[in-house]
């Protein structure tokens, strides 16, 4: 391999951002969070944490189980269609990952006694995928600030995470319930691929692939007083050890006696959601929620050789900040069997310009949603919803780093445009 390329391989971070950490579809919330945990939640812009009537609220606040008698199962799924593109000095490029992705939205609960209930939710709370052509960010006569010869450039990044969340709720009295549980995270797949800017002759691939598992805790509460209800839910941060492999081009600086096994540790951020709901009229209910996500835990990402920890493949600075999402949801009982739903969210980005990464090209966003639920009889019901996510256009300002980090520098500057369409459909069955 060309000697101008070989010394750069230990700095795969130059192409990284926080990318290795998370990627499955263009996320629908700040960073790479996907807060759509149920189909009815999708329709109401995820403002359900204080809702004690909707089965879809249980995934957001397990304490709501205490207000539902008997047993119920909700089987739903979401289809996510991202649209992500960037214009650099080399032209306009769409992410090659702009395909439809399906994610689960499943929950069930069982009332064991008058006061105790157990439940399970299965969803995908985090995910993102970006896939750029190698020439998107390469330095050229028309893009002089891009990645120079010998540098690794971002190509494909992908994460698939599924969360299994068993929980137990206890009804303290007729108005107040609490719940606690475990969040079991299964990181099905992590991909972190890069290409070497060798002038376009071959672009030899650098590939990192792995998986992992981790666990966190969740607690929640729900209080109902006449036409008002107040709810809150907290999911702790969780560290996920990752075991994977790395494939480097011939001539890389890894000793021959070392394996290609790579290790990393990724931390899922904490999530706090609180809300208030008002039954404004006999038919109309309104809810306002705030979600706080602890993205500041993503400060530096490190990927090492498993046997020889001094061989460092990735050391990337991200320096994200904790941010809020402001959610409004509404439901209107059109008839005794049909409910209309709508919502809006403004979601802040945790990613500043200083360490902006094309692996996760984030921006403030607006979420608009609507949908409906319908009772079919015999305790069957269906839910449907749609959401449009509009990212604010973003052109990050270039920053200069003294440590060789290229996140946030002129190499990744461009005009980024993103949007996401989400479609959801679900079936519910209640057993009394």
TrEMBL record:
Belongs to the OmpP1/FadL family. This is Aromatic hydrocarbon degradation protein. It comes from endosymbiont of Escarpia spicata. It is found in: Cell outer membrane. Residues 1-27 form the signal peptide. GO terms for cellular component: cell outer membrane. Its main location: membrane. Pfam families: Toluene_X. Keywords: Cell outer membrane, Membrane, Signal, Transmembrane, Transmembrane beta strand. One of its GO terms (molecular function) is long-chain fatty acid transporting porin activity. It is a multi-pass membrane protein. The keyword S-adenosyl-L-methionine does not apply. The keyword NAD does not apply.
